[in-house]
Amino acid sequence: MDQQALLKETLQLIDLRQYEKALPGLKKLVKKNEVLAMYHLGVMSYHGYGMEKNPNQAFSLLQKAALELHAGAMYYLGKLYEEGCGITQNFEKAVEYYTAAGLKGNDDAIVRSAEIFDSGKLGERKRQLALELYVELSKKNHPYATYQIGMAYLQGDGVQKSAENAYSWLNKALSLGSIDAMNRFRFIGTKSKNDARSKEDIYIIGKNLVRESKYTQATIYLEIASTEGILDAYLLLAECIEHTTKDLKRAFDLYYKAASLGNPEAMFSLAKCYESGIGVSSSAIQAAKWFEKAANEHHEQAKKELVQLRGY
């Protein structure tokens, strides 16, 4: 089989997500310095598709493909530098590669640059520069960039606060298919007619994001799920807050809300808050009270904690 035929067959396997079957062909093509093969094998090494994750191999392959001006490889090199994966973390280098990928038409790379500028990871927050990038992307009807402009107006962050402008931009983002905009409208109680997700669907998405330690992304889903009555969402939302804003008082309030509604795990967590003074003044009396409530709901660990706390 000639090189082009092998490449075509291998790319078809990747499209079908048959990564393990694609590996032998990719390795042969990499030896022949085929750029697309370097890129795809680098991506698979990064994600662990069809193989164990191999950050060093990912960096080496993607760097070679980037030298051949492959936009996707430049984008992934930006990710590797941003995450410190296979290479020492370097946000300046990440932006350098994201910018190069953006100039080759990779809009996701421009978004990543904007988020780095906005985060202050380069030493200071560059909000206006981030907004300029979002505005340029919005001209191409980019859903996420359009959503970000709407949120800027909603929060008065980098622009003058304007509910009218926020509503206009968020509606536009929604029409472009932005899940973020859909979530925002649902959070404020205005469910989009295109939003067919049940509250259980929303909760499962949030729960899975927490499992992946994506606490910031999970927060909005759990905010919605808890507002719509899923008690377990309060617990995971508190966990997200402890990992992100570290607002211990808010986390305590969430535990208290769920505990008051009868959730045994929340009762236990609330007791631990009272015991250790997390988000509230410590109180052995209140800790014992909530351990007992959880124990009465057959929470085994609460029974043990109650014995340790009061001796019986």
Order of helices and strands: HHHHHHHHHHHHHHHHHH
CATH architecture of the domain at 1-123: Alpha Horseshoe
Low-pLDDT residue intervals, each spanning 5 or more residues: none
CATH-level-4 superfamily name of the domain at 1-123: Tetratricopeptide repeat domain
* Mean pLDDT over the residues: 94
Approximately how much beta-strand content do the residues carry?
under 5%
Any idea what the shape is? Answer: globular
* Distance between the ends: 77 Å
Query: What Rg is obtained from the alpha carbons, in whole angstroms?
Result: 24 Å
For the record, what CATH class of the domain at 1-123 applies? Mainly Alpha
Number of helices: 18
- How many distinct beta strands? 0
